[in-house]
Amino acid sequence: MQNPKNLARFFFATLLILAMTACATRQTTPSSSLRLYAFNCGSIDVLDISIFQPGIGKGEHKTLTNSCYLVTHPKGSLLWDTGLSDELVKTPEGITFMDAFVLRSTRTLASQLNEIGYKSETIKYLGISHMHGDHVGNVNLFPRATLLMQKEEYDAAFGSEPGKYGFDPATYSTLRSNPLQTLEGDYDVFGDGTVIIKRMLGHTPGHQALYVKLPKSGNILLSGDLVHYTDNWVHKRVPVFNFDKEQSVKTMEDTEKFLKENHAVLWIQHDLEQNAGIKHAPAYYD
Ligand SMILES: [Zn+2]
Prior knowledge:
This protein is of the alpha/beta class. It is built from six helices and 13 strands. It has helices spanning 4-28, 109-115, 151-158, 230-235, 245-261, 272-276, and strands spanning 35-46, 62-73, 76-80, 95-97, 101-104, 125-127, 146-150, 180-183, 187-188, 195-199, 208-214, 218-222, 264-267. The longest helix has 25 residues, at 4-28. Residues 15-27 have low confidence and may be disordered.
């Protein structure tokens, strides 16, 4: 007969392993219900903030955060923006870009997806607000996802003068091979009105935002770069590098009406202070 102490040890060890397995399974099973996850996708130190608010704050620094999001749905998943490149985590001091920005990242998007049970190849749709480098940094991780993009943005990005719009084709060259669905207006991604790409032109030729209607957490609009921080939203200021200034103002005004009519909140993707109050993955909104 076995020693009762050894039996007890064996019993508890087995229980422990079962508990750990259950815990691990819970953490890594992808969700099939409607959820919104927020990820930290880097930060941007702006060396002269007046480029975002012409004539104001010349020479002053301001730090912007950089966000990307995953929407899970019974019919599949949508990644919204891909942030700065995961390669940046190898350079903790950051990389200076165009003498205007210092770009940093402390966590990879891949690891944050992994933590909630997602591998990049399982993402069904890739929604990119626009083609600037801080939004397309990791598109190469998602070659199988169907790209959902306004036609004007796609044409500008892959046309003859991408630099005219602040686009660098080297940062998104893999997108040329992705399955593609070009859009010419708002688009209901899963066909049930819960996840809608909103055409919001001005920042770039085919800029878009993402509207998510959650049963418990309410209606949330992910801004893209409709606006970069709250003070500019309040004063409807337009950065010097926007594609179309008048259109940018009109889009902001229209969006303000839309938010009021739909009792929706605006999550400004680059707003450091607002972002600090948002739950990040593995927590989620549903
Ligand atoms: Zn941006």
